Amino acid sequence: MEELEPSELGTLEYWEKRYKQEIKNFTNHGDVGEIWFGEDIVDKVTVWIIKHIPKTARIIDVGCGNGHTLIELANEGYTNLVGVDYSERAVILAQSIAENRGLNIKYSQCDILQGLNDVYDIVHDKEKALKSDGLFIITSCNWTHNELQDQYKDHFDLDCLIPTPQFKFGGKVGSVVSICVFKHKNK
Ligand SMILES: C[S@@+](CC[C@H](N)C(=O)[O-])C[C@H]1O[C@@H](n2cnc3c(N)ncnc32)[C@H](O)[C@@H]1O
């Protein structure tokens, strides 16, 4: 099988350059920048969290970018929110947006591959740092629900799927984005 070229989205250089521009756009025009999976998908995650998770839960968004998901949660009354990103400029952007809106969200620069020091009730997007009874919510535009379950099967059981818009092609039904909620495996 032909080997795929690594994506530039997997490099810190790409994100630093991108957030440099997004900081400029925010400073000059108040434009907060890209919402990667779209507003509709962020809504699905936040609506699910609002329905199932208390407002005081300790929630971390890993690879938070401009912090859009956390801002939505803060607007809904969540008080214990943390965002980390390995791009220093993403952190600067996210801090500026939160400050501009008078929201109390803690941001810091952190490469998830180096690990996190703390544990959380809800981890959005990457999974280490989860309390034993916590929930790990992942949104993916690369992998299907089944592939995500397979990827995490040694450590996590599926708690539920958050439904996303579907499309039909060639008689098959698919989703552009998959959102899974995982819990630690019962030992
Ligand atoms: C596709 S963007 C998503 C941003 C945001 N979560 C959203 O949904 O709009 C991916 C983000 O992950 C961050 N990221 C990638 N690898 C990371 C790592 N190893 N540690 C922390 N952040 C990382 C990037 O800097 C970027 O901000």
Automatic annotation (TrEMBL):
Cytoplasm is among the record's keywords: yes
GO MF annotations in UniProt: protein-lysine N-methyltransferase activity
UniProt-listed CDD domains: AdoMet_MTases
Described function: S-adenosyl-L-methionine-dependent protein-lysine N-methyltransferase that methylates elongation factor 1-alpha.
Its EC number(s): 2.1.1.-
Protein name: Protein-lysine N-methyltransferase GWI33_004882
The organism's place on the tree of life at top rank: Eukaryota
Cellular component GO terms, alphabetical: cytoplasm
InterPro entries linked: Efm4/METTL10, Methyltranfer_dom, SAM-dependent_MTases_sf
Occurrences of domain Methyltransferase (ranges): 56-152
Gene Ontology biological-process annotations: methylation
Keywords: Cytoplasm, Methyltransferase, S-adenosyl-L-methionine, Transferase
Compartments where found: Cytoplasm
Entries under Gene3D superfamilies matching the protein: Vaccinia Virus protein VP39
Predominant location category: cytoplasm
Family as reported in the entry's similarity comment: Belongs to the class I-like SAM-binding methyltransferase superfamily. EFM4 family.
UniProt keyword Transit peptide present: no
Pfam families linked: Methyltransf_31 (PF13847)
